[in-house]
Design brief:
single chain, Metallo-beta-lactamase, Chain A, seven-stranded mixed β-sheet
Amino acid sequence: MRITWLGHSGFRIETAEAVLLVDPWLTGNPMFPEARRAEAIDRATHVLVSHGHGDHAGDAVAIARETGAPILGIYDLMSFWAETEKVETVGFNKGGTVAAGDARVTMVNAVHSSSMGGPAGPVYAGAEAGFMIAADGHTIYFSGDTDVMADMAVLAELHRPDIGLLCAGGHFTMDMARAAYAARKFFDFDMVIPCHYKTFDLLEQSAEALVAGLPDVKVIEPDVLVPIEL
């Protein structure tokens, strides 16, 4: 398995048989070098979208058209895109599990919000979510945008993820200290990779508090487009 950060909350996850793009916001992402777009989406087999905000879902439809990869996400938004954008989607809901090549993707709860821009302001885009992604002997918990929540205890017990891709920038989501608390309190991760930080000035710029809060966990501050091999 190979995990590559695309900046902000975007990840490319390569398994033995699949290439999953999770919340791949590339266009207008200050952290992503747009000249390397083709490299980021190369051989993509599935696009996963956690919620409707533009910094997560903004490139999903375009990538689906470019690659032919189906978009997996909350039923409401997937149904809307299938009808209006004419792209292949797989709509499911929290607690549901779908196949993405050799990976098993379970949608799990998150606490945030989900909308898209409309002519008269924000419009409903289905509920916010996270994902448990099981493949190649690992289970990855992609938190999506969320705060700490008691549900994490149940998710840890049911799925036992060994890798956490945790939002940790603060302001819109839990910050580094709260992400460390969540990881320490509920999970038994071998590795944690923070995301949803550095992108804008109002977000945290360093994972120092996360590292300090998880002395027994391998915390990796990722570099954009530099693969992490498992």
